Amino acid sequence: MTNQIKSENKPLPALHLVYGNPDFPKLDQDTLAKAIQEVNPKINEHSIKARWVFQEIEKCLGELQFDQHMIRFAGLSTPLPQEIVDRTIHPSPWGAQIKAAMRQHQSQLSLVYAGSHHDPVEQMIALYQAAHAFSSEDLLGVLNQNAWTAHPPGDYLSPEKIQSYREVIPFNLWVGYVKFFVDEENYWLVTKGHHIFDVPDLAYFMRPNENAEEIINQFINIFYYIFEQDVVVTAGDTLEISKKGQYLKFSEVSEGADFLLGPSGTLVIEKITPDDIAQQG
User: Fold this and answer.
1) Percentage of residues in the chain with pLDDT exceeding 90?
2) Angstrom distance (rounded) from CA 105 to CA 207
3) Closest Cα partner for 165 from 111, 222, 125?
4) φ, ψ of residue 253 in degrees (nearest 5)
5) What contacts 159, CB < 8 A, 6 or more positions away?
6) Is 48 exposed, middle or buried (0-12, 13-18, 19+ CB in 10 A)?
7) What is the reported pLDDT for 152?
8) Which of 49, 124, 187, 262 would disulfide-bridge 181, Cβ 3.0–4.6 Å?
9) Which strands make up the sheet holding 59-66, listed edge to edge?
10) Strands laid side by side in the 247-252 sheet
11) Cβ-defined contacts of 151-156 (< 8 Å, 24+)
12) pLDDT of 144-201, one tens digit each?
């Protein structure tokens, strides 16, 4: 395990906001600045700048700048392409009614991070600040194409909630946990979206009677280890996951690369015992 190598070619953090009305929000400079300050009152309102390339009835294009952040936005009075809808809403963990509501959107506003802040958590928080600014009663959902997931607005865009993301990363919003079935009982459980944080995605082959929530918790623990310790985990490495002699082994993706591999790579994890480690030695 070595120091983490940053990926320069990973996709930019981005969100798609989808609305039930064909008319997406058309806001002025003062309204946007006030909404940004609701999340972070320390920001000087004069440092918040919004610029529109064009702002028309059926489309808009512009950018929102505050602190070290720049958010580029583009809106259309049409639904998102079906491919994006299927990749985000379909695998998300929400109930059928919530998914159906998001699928029935009539307009879209895409937000892309283009600022200079080095911390990916702060980049995502900046996107959510912008999403808060562009939220309305017609907002049906927030789609994260990088993470293959989506969520309803709920209180996830409230100033208090957004501020809390600095303390605890909201994995249920920012990371997708996608199932790829190989037959009726067995499937790959794979993370999507780790690359935004310069962390490889993780995959585990689920068999009958195994607990998916347990594996997701392991994914989260491994994420924190790599992200906070700034290390690289490579194929062949092992990691002790408790004081009870439980270990995980990391290996390369050997099958299903077309759906398992993420932009920063994917590591397969496997549970092993100390005896397994001794035999490998």
Assistant:
1) 78
2) 36
3) 125
4) -70, 120
5) 38, 39, 132
6) buried
7) 98
8) 187
9) 49-55, 59-66, 69-76, 107-113, 14-19, 139-144, 149-151
10) 176-181, 187-192, 201-206, 266-272, 247-252, 238-240
11) 151/92, 151/94, 152/94, 152/98, 152/101, 152/102, 156/128
12) 999 999 999 999 999 999 999 999 999 999 999 999 999 999 999 999 999 999 999 9
Residue with tokens 């379909």: 90
Strands 238-240 and 14-19: unpaired
Report whether 25 contacts 32 (CB < 8 A): no
User: Which single residue is written with the structure tokens 């790829």?
Assistant: 180
Contact assessment for residue 143 and residue 127, using Cβ atoms and an 8 Å cutoff: no
> Which tokens belong to 75?
């809106």
How many residues make up the chain in this entry? Answer: 281
Confidence category of residue 7, pLDDT binned at 50, 70, 90: very low
